[in-house]
Write a structure and sequence with these properties.
Length: 230
């Protein structure tokens, strides 16, 4: 039997424990995803269980990832009047943010001596996982590693994003939501939605728009960066 029948219950229980701990302590560093990983990874290591078996047993959660992203349309609908009034600013912010995320990560990787394959893998780090893996694959990157890069970017944004915005004095809910959604996709959006409904709506909007912009422009920007820095 290749699948672990108890990996799905383990994941759900670990996440519920992490959520309760985060709600009680109210510390940004105590992120539910990080805590759940800190619970599950040692268990797999102690029992010498391969990740492939764990993943196969909890594949249902992975299949629910895309419907969960689609469900973010609800807060968008609730804020539609404000989105219509500010659509030019929203598109401009997401366009600049997406290009900055794509160019900066790839350029730094190439500058530090990364191969084109690794640079292509890092390029879509700031969009949600399904889009990042598709973009990475189209650029001959490594989709599995792209998913890890997305996870790291999301966790950093969810943990430190609001702290940084507070230090910079950004108080407008729309601006905070767009910044978080642009930089840390679904994980940051989930954190924004927990803090404020309006902020979560704009974060989910940025998540969708930035994913579209990245998927459209990354195939054209990547060869230019290779030619410029190669």
């Amino acid at each position: 039997m290749n699948e672990m029948w108890w990996s799905l219950p383990l994941t759900v229980v670990a996440f519920l424990i992490a959520r309760r701990l985060a709600a009680r302590l109210k510390i940004s560093l105590i992120n539910p995803l990080l805590v759940a990983m800190a619970i599950i990874i040692p268990i797999l290591l102690l029992l010498h269980l391969p990740y492939a078996r764990y993943f196969a047993g909890s594949q249902l959660l992975n299949q629910l990832l895309q419907p969960a992203v689609v469900a973010l349309a609800l807060p968008l609908y609730e804020q539609m009047h404000q989105i219509r009034a500010r659509w030019k600013s929203i598109i401009s912010v997401c366009f600049i943010g997406s290009l900055t995320a794509v160019v900066s990560g790839t350029a730094i990787a190439l500058w530090m001596g990364a191969t084109p394959e690794i640079a292509a893998t890092i390029m879509p780090k700031s969009v949600t996982t399904p889009i990042a893996m598709a973009v990475s694959g189209s650029l001959h990157g490594i989709p599995a590693i792209s998913a890890i890069c997305v996870l790291i970017a999301g966790v950093l944004g969810a943990v430190f994003g609001h702290m940084l915005l507070n230090l910079l004095g950004v108080k407008t809910k729309a601006a905070r939501g767009l910044a978080i959604g642009n930089a840390s996709h679904a994980l940051g959006t989930a954190r924004s939605a927990e803090i404020d409904f309006k902020e979560g709506a704009f974060s989910s909007l940025a998540l969708v728009i930035c994913g579209i912009i990245t998927s459209l422009f990354a195939p054209f920007i990547f060869p230019l960066l290779l030619r410029w820095m190669g």
